[in-house]
Amino acid sequence: MENEHGITLPVLKSEIGFLHEVKTVFHGKREKYEEFIKDIHAFKTWMDNNHRITRLPVKKFKERMNKVLKRHNHLILGFNNYMKHYRITLSIPINDDEQQGGHRTGQKRKKVEENYQLPWDLNFMAFQEPLLVQRCSIKKSFNFFSLPHNKVYHSKMINNYFPFAYHGSSSGYFIMTRKDNSFILINPFTRRKMLINNTVFKVAYQFFSCKVLLAFSKGSEEFVLVVLSTNYDNLHVYRSQSLCWTAYSTPHKVVDFVVLNNIIYVVTDKANIGMLSLKYANINFLELKNTPVVTSTKSCSHVRLVSCDGYLLVFNIMSKVTYNVYKIDFSTMDYVKLESLGDIAIFYVPPKRYYALSNPRMWGYENNSIYAIDAPCDKYRVYKGDNNKMPEFIIPGFKRSELPHPSYCCSKQRYIDWCFRHLQYEVDYTLFE
Question: Is the pLDDT score of 298 beyond 70?
Answer without folding.
Answer: no
